[in-house]
Request: fold
Amino acid sequence: MKKERPVDLNIAAFRWPLAAIMSITHRLTGVFLFAGVGLLIWLLDASLSSAQGFADVKVMLSSPGASFALWFVLAALAYHTAAGVKHFFMDMGIGESLEGGQLAAKITLAIAIVLIILAGLWVW
Reply:
């Protein structure tokens, strides 16, 4: 029996590459958006139902908690869209190398941050 085998494999000790972290968060934002878009559709339906429904949604979205929730859904949508475009380019064969993947991850993160900031400015 080999005595040099790993005894305790600590996953937290690994240094994850940026492209791997972004791929995982892209999947997580997709799961979150499944519920978040449902919330947005419900708000749209309530606001279009009547003048009173619109007023109720307007009052609800004026609270800081609702504004933060709306911004969080928009931030997830912005990040997921930017990462999805990156995956689309990679499916076309652009940025498939290690260096290209790292550069694409950095560019995607920068674009997502700008879009998230713009969404925050729009909500508040």
